[in-house]
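Entry for the shared binder. Reason: the reviewer on the internal report wants the predicted structure included alongside the sequence.
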Amino acid sequence: MRLTMIRTKKTTDGIFGKLSIDTSLFSCFTCENLAKAINPGTYNVRFDYSPRFNRTMPHIIDDTRDIAAGGDAGIRIHWGNNPSNYEGCIGVGNGQEGDSIDNTVSTFNELYTIIKDQQGLTITIVNNYSADA
């Protein structure tokens, strides 16, 4: 199973786009912190325990970040409404308005239900900003 995130808009603080799944009709909006966003590319996703969220979460594995320097300490897909909620992570919601996304907890739960048992899960992140964004 492959997730694809296409970034389409930058604001002062954030990056916004859409996430889709190759084997599902599911899609959602995404939000990231502009200053801390992960680089475009394809990454493996594993599921492990997140101390911050106190539960198992999708963890994006970025081998280019120095773990000793706090790099890949937990790049996650999770809930949160605006760019300040993300430290390199990706937020998901069912709508986007201004500098925030909507209904993030329910959107995360729907996505998690679809992907939680998948082995070999990857995410491809693509920049495709519109000329006026």
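Summary line for the report: The chain has one helix and ten strands.
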